[in-house]
Amino acid sequence: MERADEFARVESADQGGLLTYYRGERGIVRSASNFRVFADMLLERSEPEFSGPGYRASASIAGAGPVVLVNPWNGPLLLESWKVAPALACGNSVVLKPSEWTPLTASMLADVAAEAGLPDGVLNVVQGFGDEVGAALVGDARARRISFTGSVPTARAIAAAAAPNLTPCSFELGGKSPLLVFEDADLEVAVTTAKRQFSNAGQVCLIGSRLLVAESVFDRFVERFAAEMAEFTVGDPRDETTDMGPLIHHEQFARVDGFVQRARRDGARAVFGGGPLRDDGSLYYRPTLLADMEPDAEIVTEEVFGPVLTVQPFVSEEQAIAMANSTRYGLTATVLTGDTARAERVAARLDAGTVWVNCFWVRDLRAPFGGTGDSGVGREGGEWSFDFYSEVKNTVTAS
C-alpha cells in the first residue's frame, strides 16, 4: 500500500486500464486486501479431530510443495495476488509466470516481497512467453499444483502437460455470460448495469456480454441504453474523464474487430459502435451493441473479450433460462428482476458458478469463484483456495 500510486500508474500504462480504476477500491487496494484476507483466514484455520471406539484421529494440513501460477494480462496484479496470497499462506513456494503482455507489476510484487522479508526462493517471478517458459513450468514434475487463468485452448494444453505427472490443476477460464432483464426490473438499474459490462474495454472474463431482455421492455431498454452511451468517453486511460481505455494489443484488437465484422456481414445490426474508434493504428475500439443475430451465431456463442455486447429478446421465463444456458460456458450470470420468487427460481436453474441478483461484480474474498463447462475446473477463494494449495493427512491412533 505504501507504493499503491506507483503500482496503479505502472499497471495502467502496462495494461491500458483506467488509472482511476487502479487507484480505486477494486484496483491496488483490492490486491493488497487479498494478502490481508487470506492471512486472517489462515489464523482462523483449525485441524479437525475425530474419535470413536478404540481410536482417535486428527487431520493435519500442510503445503503441497512448489506451485506454478500462470496469469493473464487483463487484471495482472489483482489476479496474481488472488493466487499468490493463498498459495503462500498454505506454506508453499511459488513460481509465478505473468503474461508477456503485462509483466511489470509482477516484478514489482517480487520486489515488495523481498523488501518485506520473504525468504529468497519462496516467491519467484519468471518472465517469458507462454509457449516457451510457461510450457516448461507446467510440464515440470516438481510442480505440485498448477493454477491458470486464461483461455480454454491454453488450459487444455496445460492439462495435457500436467497429466503425465498427475499434477492437480485449477482453471478459471472464459465466459459468455448472460445478463437477464425481466419486465419488472428497474430499467435505470438495468442500463447502468449494462454499461458496466464495458469495464476494462470488455476484457473481463465475468462480464455479462449477452443481454437477454424481456420483449415487453426490449425497445425501451435498447433506446435508453443507446442514449446513455452517447455520453460515454473512450480515450486516454490516464484521463479522469475517460470511461474506457484501449484494447491491450494489436492482436487482440484484430480479434475483436474480426468478430464484429463477421457478425455484421452475417446480418447483425449495430445499435451503436461496430468498429474502431479511429483509423490511425491506435487500439481504441467503439463500445458496441449488436442486435438481430441468429440464436446460434458466432457472436452469441463465442467469447469476444472486448467491448462488444449482444442484445436479444425473450418472451417467457422458460425461454430466458434456455437462452442463458445455451452456450458451453458457465462462469457468471446476472438477473435483474423485482420479483424475489422469480429471482430464486431463475438463479437456481442457471448454469453458472456465480449468479448476481440485482447487483453485479460483488466478490467476497471468502466466497468461491469459478465456472462450469468450458469456464473452468475447480473454485478459488476462501477455503476453496486453501483446499487446493494444501495436502491433508489423516493420522489415526489406537486409544
From TrEMBL:
A Pfam family the protein falls into: Aldedh
Alphabetical keyword list: NAD, Oxidoreductase
PROSITE patterns, per database record: ALDEHYDE_DEHYDR_GLU (PS00687)
MF terms (GO), sorted A to Z: oxidoreductase activity, acting on the aldehyde or oxo group of donors, NAD or NADP as acceptor
Annotated active site: E172
Domain Aldehyde dehydrogenase per the UniProt entry, residue ranges: 2-394
InterPro entries recorded: Ald_DH/histidinol_DH (IPR016161), Ald_DH_C (IPR016163), Ald_DH_CS_GLU (IPR029510), Ald_DH_N (IPR016162), Aldehyde_DH_dom (IPR015590)
Family membership: Belongs to the aldehyde dehydrogenase family.
Listed name of the protein: Aminomuconate-semialdehyde dehydrogenase
Taxonomic placement: Bacteria, Bacillati, Actinomycetota, Actinomycetes, Mycobacteriales
